[in-house]
Amino acid sequence: MSNYKAPEILEKEASELWDTLKETELTPKSRRDIPQQDMPSQDPDIRRGNMEEVAVGYTAEQVFVESARCLQCKNAPCINGCPVSIDIPRFIKEAGDGKFGPAIDVIKESSMLPAICGRVCPQEKQCMEQCTLGKILKDPEKSVAIGRIERFLADWESENRPETAPELPPSNGKKVAIVGSGPSGLTAAADLRKAGFEVTIFEAFHKPGGVTVYGIPEFRLPKAIVEREVEGLMRMGVTFENNFLVGRTRKLKDLMEKDGYNAVYIASGAGLPKFMHIEGENLVGVFSANEFLTRSNLMKAYDSNAATPIYQAKRVAVFGGGNVAMDAARTAVRMGAEEVHIIYRRTEKEMPARVEEVHHAKEEGVIFNLLTSPVRILGDEDGRVRAIECLKYELGEPDESGRRKPVPIEGSEFTIDVETCIPAIGNTSNPLIKQTTPGLEFTRWGTIEVDENQKTSLDHVFAGGDISQGAATVILAMGDGRKAAAAIIEDLK
Amino acid sequence: MNKILEKKQLSADVFRMKIEAPLIAEERKAGQFLILQVDKELGERIPLTIANADAQEGFIEIIFQAVGATTRQLSRKEAGESVEAVLGPLGQPTVIEKKDGPVVCVGGGIGVAPMHPIVEAHHKIGNRVITIMGARNKDLLIMEDEMKALSDELIICTDDGSYGRKDLVTVPLKELCESDTPPAEVIAIGPPIMMKFCAETTRPYKVHTMVSLNTIMVDGTGMCGGCRVSIGGETKFVCVDGPEFDGHLVDFDNMMMRLKSYKNQEAHRCNLDIEAEKLEAERK
Ligand SMILES: Cc1cc2nc3c(=O)[nH]c(=O)nc-3n(C[C@H](O)[C@H](O)[C@H](O)COP(=O)(O)OP(=O)(O)OC[C@H]3O[C@@H](n4cnc5c(N)ncnc54)[C@H](O)[C@@H]3O)c2cc1C
Ligand SMILES: Cc1cc2nc3c(=O)[nH]c(=O)nc-3n(C[C@H](O)[C@H](O)[C@H](O)COP(=O)(O)OP(=O)(O)OC[C@H]3O[C@@H](n4cnc5c(N)ncnc54)[C@H](O)[C@@H]3O)c2cc1C
Ligand code: SF4
Ligand code: SF4
Ligand code: FES
């Protein structure tokens, strides 16, 4: 990726390029020579100090130029890379012709949350990984920027089309309970409501949205976008019961036996933070990424009027290399930390985070300590974090999977002075539903066991999203929601 | 939104509220708590024990001490007003079993409130209940009548001797451990330092001692790990694995340290801490 360019420059370059492109007859060869359009973003020096969205979105000219790169492949391998099989060439064709309305309609045939997925999908591991253009250029990051076009179209729709309540079939008298209001629950709710079911979403938090509101920060996914989706569902007649913990406020079986729900879809996510079990992990100043992000996002600790405090630190170390780690590190920057470290055991190539987020984190001054792993956390006499001790790694022989495994370098211990440590090494499933729902089968990783239709071991009970897949992605969670809704419609026929 | 049905002031900064919450009232068991949020956008989520509940009438009761921003804000609400959210019941219920010997319930300060449903439950299944209540002075004692009605024996201690015995709660607790009918079980709820010393008091007598931990919490559902404590060397989450744990296994020093995490930021001293520091000073 290139160095930072201001949005005005990108806009100017794109419109100049488009002026020449629109006059020429494009061949596959000339299409592949068109440069990929960078995502315009806020100036790194300025955005370090605000919570506003970093990526500001393509301009219409950028969409035209980027769409012109698409080869409109007959076999469209990109579609196979998208977990919900969006007809990518078709929507790109419409977008390239300036028909934004028809373009977004194509996306909405398959995906309910394009404004969210366009922003947070790990595209280079999904649709873009399969793209022919990327294959030709030998780099999936150079593929057609499918997600960026998708995002433009979703934003275009919300600005240019009035919200209308869709026509709904009359209630069929059957009730479905959905546990959890993350992307998976919201998607299932929409499909079920459209099919005439009475749908209630039960959510433990005071706001619906799941990880998209408590985890992924405002600067990457504005909360207003999630709110709009939720409001849309409310207009459709979906009921939200917030502050309701299934298993405690009501047991799952009681929802069916006492409250008359005919089916339940469990989409409760993977909300139990993992710790590393190293010395010093319970010192003051060690926070799971979930806690750190919840305090800052959902509880708005960045607002000086908010009642929820966040721990102040000048130097912060985040353990991990995924999206969660990037989000925690970049939030720490915005909360005023002067020095923020990512500590990751492998190399940048293996980092599970979206490429764009790694790039943005670097622009914001986050320091990457690769092939490094924390060994213990050191505290002062008041039990507060004062430093971390790390060990250096090198890449060893490739293992069965072909990945070169990092091996520790003996005697390479060194310390970094920090006041806060944030383990962001993943989440496992919350055991609450397991403990309170006899008969529901779980895998040995604690996820709910489901068949290919998201059906669990209990009659009329389905599950999907992170609770059945383990920590996955928004689009996969959404895909499960769709499948489950279809299966529930079939089941309750 | 949950409506406040009734509010009473029990002492200078301790309040009792009845709040409408029919589902919680129906499901709750002794030892469980809830998370309450006074205001939606910028409010903090705080854990409070369910001190009492009425499933028929559909309300729960909380008893809280106004120690900081959110509890003070709550104390200014009046009957007829509402709080934004109440989530519960949370945590594992207290294990209530028929015991051969007496069950000794030790409540310190505001800790008497969470003790109430536990005393009630033991009383109900026919256990002999001895309750020890402690406070700094007479004015800070709460729920004396309720506790008296449910206990076979009630021992009251004040630090200054203004009422009952002039002793720390650990003194009668030790006497009971040494008596001919030692406790079959002890439950201690109060400031961390008090629970720590109760656990130390019973340890030599090998009397099983449960304590209810009041860590800082955010979600109360196991999602954040902010409430974690070290129990016998293992990390546990108070909101889902607790709040009650074997007092002989709790790393109280680490827990007390963690409770002070935001001390500088919240810029006011917790009454519990002042009380606890005094208790500790007196012991030395
Ligand atoms: C910080 C962070 C960054 C991420 N970044 C990305 C990204 O860039 N791209 C991407 O694709 N994915 C990302 N992910 C992963 C993605 O967010 C999840 O895969 C997705 O949200 C899963 O959706 P879900 O509907 O299964 O569950 P969730 O979004 O986890 O929602 C589950 C909801 O259920 C509620 N709940 C749980 N138990 C109960 C109960 N018993 N009763 C009632 N309610 C309950 C929870 O409070 C929660 O609101 C990220 C995750 C995190 C944590
Ligand atoms: C399971 C559980 C049950 C509880 N039950 C009750 C109850 O029935 N009645 C009651 O009055 N309180 C109870 N508490 C304690 C109560 O949650 C805290 O007093 C409250 O969170 C303080 O919030 P605040 O915003 O008013 O104070 P803050 O401004 O957040 O803090 C004020 C001071 O209190 C300290 N503090 C913060 N959180 C806690 C805490 N959890 N425990 C002790 N000190 C804390 C801070 O370090 C600070 O010095 C319980 C706690 C737990 C975990
Ligand atoms: S939903 Fe995600 S994977 Fe599918 S096309 Fe859009 S960005 Fe690509
Ligand atoms: S694979 Fe790439 S180039 Fe081919 S149709 Fe899909 S997006 Fe266009
Ligand atoms: S309060 Fe968040 S895990 Fe217990």
Characterization of this structure:
- The complex is a heterodimer of chains A (493) and B (284).
- Chain A has helices at residues 7-21, 28-33, 44-47, 60-69, 77-81, 88-96, 100-110, 114-120, 127-130, 132-136, 146-160, 183-194, 211-214, 223-235, 252-257, 289-296, 323-334, 355-363, 432-436, 466-469, 474-491, and strands at residues 175-179, 198-202, 239-241, 263-266, 272-273, 315-319, 339-343, 367-369, 372-379, 385-398, 404-408, 414-417, 420-423, 427-428, 461-463.
- Chain A folds into 3 domains: 7-160, Alpha-helical ferredoxin (Fumarate Reductase Iron-sulfur Protein, Chain B, domain 2); 175-271 and 429-491, 3-Layer(bba) Sandwich (FAD/NAD(P)-binding domain); 273-426, 3-Layer(bba) Sandwich (FAD/NAD(P)-binding domain), CATH 3.50.50.60.
- In chain A, strands 3-2-1-4-15 form a 5-stranded parallel sheet.
- Chain A has 493 residues and is an alpha/beta fold.
- Chain A is globular and about 65 Å long.
- The longest helix of chain A is centred in the C-terminal third of the chain and has 18 residues, at 474-491.
- The model of chain A has no long low-confidence stretch (mean pLDDT 93).
- Chain B is α/β, with parallel strands linked by helices and 284 residues long.
- Chain B is built from 10 helices and 17 strands.
- The interface between A and B is large, with 42 and 43 residues.
- FE2/S2 (inorganic) cluster (FES) is lined by residues 217-220, 222-227, 237, 239 of chain B.
Which tags fit this structure?
heterodimer, A: 493 residues, alpha/beta, Fumarate Reductase Iron-sulfur Protein, Chain B, domain 2, FAD/NAD(P)-binding domain, 3 domains, five-stranded parallel sheet, four-stranded parallel sheet, 21 helices, 15 strands, globular, B: 284 residues, seven-stranded mixed sheet, five-stranded antiparallel sheet, 10 helices, 17 strands, 29% helix, binds flavin-adenine dinucleotide, binds iron/sulfur cluster, binds FE2/S2 (inorganic) cluster
